[in-house]
Amino acid sequence: MTELLTISNLSYKKNQKQILHDVNLQLDSGKIVALLGENGAGKTTLMRIIAGVAKNYKGQVSLEGEEKEVQRKAKLSFTDNLTGFSDSTKIKDVVEFYINIFTDFDENQFEELRKFMKLDPEMKLSQLSRGMKEKLIIALTFSRKADLYLLDEPFSGIDAMARKRIINSIILWKEDQATILISDHFVNEISALLDEVVVVKDHTILEHKTADEIREGHESIEEYYEGLYADEEDE
Ligand SMILES: Nc1ncnc2c1ncn2[C@@H]1O[C@H](COP(=O)(O)OP(=O)(O)OP(=O)(O)O)[C@@H](O)[C@H]1O
Predict the structure, then answer these.
(1) The domain spanning residue 120 has which CATH number?
(2) Is any atom of ligand 1 closer than 6 Å to the C-beta of 43?
(3) For residue 88, is it left (φ>0), alpha (ψ between -120 and 50) or beta?
(4) Is 45 a pocket residue for ligand 1 (Cβ < 6 Å)?
(5) CA 153-96-89 angle, 5° bins
(6) What is the rounded distance in angstroms from the CA atom of residue 197 to the CA atom of residue 207?
(7) ipTM > 0.90?
(8) Strands 58-63 and 3-14: what pairing?
């Protein structure tokens, strides 16, 4: 087992508000890991810190031994929200940008994924529905040959049928040794894929377990996850 990502004593404040506190996490290569937690728990923030987008945190984040943000960014592929592009940008122009920026961007892989997602390269970003935009983001994210893929609620606007097709194929879009960290509010949809589960609660990581460990003691990963909040509902 090779150590891929190590986060030690990570704390993060924004506008004097504590968003993450004393986060410690270690992920190995070749895993599919769910990042679960309620709205506002800090999942996006944690991914943004790992991705090198959110800065000024306290603690250490190291990806294959690299702590510097530029070096981390070169090794990971994060679901960008495409906000840097104007509405009139065409899909093919976004791809051109990715080819120029990321040396690991594989054009052939993008073509395959674009067809899988049924996207027309001539379409402008303004013409894409929410689900279509998410499909484009997934296609772009997996067209890079990265060691770590960070998927932040990648399917929230995608219809159920397409979601199923994508989830069933995700494992084919990465190299064996690459790890995927994925946040999703519908854990049962991705549970079959999962090797590990990380739960963020009260500004920190509450649990980090293997999927097998969870399945041994629970009916399903969803049932385990809901159980973590059951006491609160009783109050
Ligand atoms: N720019 C900001 N300024 C201040 N607080 C922020 C900012 N962005 C996020 N937060 C706060 O940080 C906390 C964590 O937000 P984050 O988006 O990381 O949560 P999340 O777990 O991804 O939620 P969701 O499931 O709704 O996507 C929230 O309490 C939110 O209010």
Answers:
(1) 3.40.50.300
(2) yes
(3) alpha
(4) yes
(5) 70
(6) 8
(7) yes
(8) antiparallel
Nearest alpha carbon, ligand 1 atom 12: 19
- Give the residue numbers spanning the domain of 135: 3-234
> CA separation (Å) from 146 to 1, 65, 123, 178?
18, 15, 27, 7
Q: pTM for the complete prediction?
A: 0.95
* Token pair in block for residue 189: 């949809």
Which three-class secondary structure state does DSSP give residue 36?
strand
| C-alpha 35, offset from chain centre | 8
217's tokens: 């003691």
Distance 40 CA to ligand 1 centre (A): 5
Domain count across the chain: 1
Mean model confidence pLDDT for the chain: 95
* 130 ligand 1 Cβ < 6 A: no
